[in-house]
Amino acid sequence: MKPPGKPAVWSIAAFLLLATSSTVLAQESAAVDRTLTGDAACTRCHDESETKPILAMYKTRHGVKADERTPGCQSCHGASEGHIRNTGGTGAKRTLPDVTFGVRGKSDAKLQAGTCLGCHEGSNRALWRGSQHESRDIACAGCHTVHAAADPVLTKLSQPDVCFGCHKTQRAQTHLVSTHPLAAAKMACADCHNPHGSTSDHLMAKASVNDTCFTCHAEKRGPFLWEHAPVADDCTNCHTPHGSTVAPLLKARVPWLCQECHSGDHANAVNSAANLQDGAVATAGGLNPLANSAARAQLAARACLNCHVLIHGSNHPAGAKFQR
User: What sections of the chain are H helices per DSSP?
Assistant: First the structure.
């Protein structure tokens, strides 16, 4: 049994803690000046002579002072009194702001992200905590350029270059003969990936790889009476999304791609889904009349897609053979 009067003591303690917290929050809020007057403490030094375009921020949404949600310099960097007064002393390196941003910033990546998420929480950033980028200490400023008049990562033409700064393999793949139209700015990395976090693998924008692909390739979605199992499972079973030497973005050429699964004798009704009248024209050897022919003739008879046209799924009376 709890001692008499204990709940009352706890209530008073809780009240005092709440009052103290409210006072601290009020003091912190009062210390942050988001107006142009507050910004002047920074901009009188960080002016147009800066190497990086600091003042260009006033051409962005972060510089619209008519909107009460718009932050000021102190909203993101803190009051930074030591930096303003240069408490490091004469000749010493100036004291850094309370919060500094960037890949090589002095502030912890989680502190940087927490500062941004104070306003930008929710929406497609709701899954940031625990995401691949967050767990690797990638700060928001590692991708975003806040003070620039136009943030490169928010423009389709320049966004891939920002991503390729880390993802070198994907950069090389996009220069292969078959690729998505990133260079033409018809799409960008964020059309398929959500860099702020996702419930699916590879930071996909949708719940799965297939759902993401179907956003553009809706004709492959179905439903079909006869479905091709690897298609329904995962588009990347056959396709490589960033680039390939085989059109259209195939992982290997036909028939080798098909034979990764369909390895049976094409003339054998037991081992194959198709039984050709003239023998195993899809495989060499046995009763295959092309077995002793030139390689060119053999390959001509092994172009699976010449007959199996509806390879993503079919509603045709030909059924599970995926023919016309």
Answer: 6-31, 36-43, 73-77, 81-85, 109-120, 132-135, 159-164, 168-173, 209-214, 229-233, 256-259, 295-300
Q: What is the pLDDT of residues 101-150, one digit of tens each?
A: 987 767 999 999 999 999 998 888 999 999 999 999 999 999 999 999 99
Q: According to the model, what pLDDT value does residue 14 have?
A: 42
Tell whether the model's pLDDT for residue 174 goes beyond 60: yes
- Count of domains forming the chain: 2
Does 160 reside within a domain? no
CA dihedral 169→175→181→183, nearest 10 degrees, is 100
Instruction: Check whether the bond before 317 is cis (ω within 30° of 0).
Output: no
Which domain range does residue 297 map to?
A: 222-324
Whether the per-residue pLDDT at 317 is higher than 70: the answer is yes
> Do 226 and 145 fall into the same domain?
no
**Would residue 299 count as lying in a domain?**
yes
In sequence order, what are the beta bridge partners of 226? 314
CB 56 within 8 A of CB 150: no
Give the number of other CB atoms < 10 A from CB of residue 273. 13
- Domain assignment of residue 157, yes or no: no
Cβ atoms of residues 34 and 72 within 8 Å = yes
Phi, psi of 10 (to 5 degrees): -60, -40
Phi and psi dihedrals of 250, rounded to 5?
Answer: -80, 150
* 6 assigned to some structural domain: no
Per-residue pLDDT tens for 215-246? 999 999 989 999 999 999 999 999 999 999 99
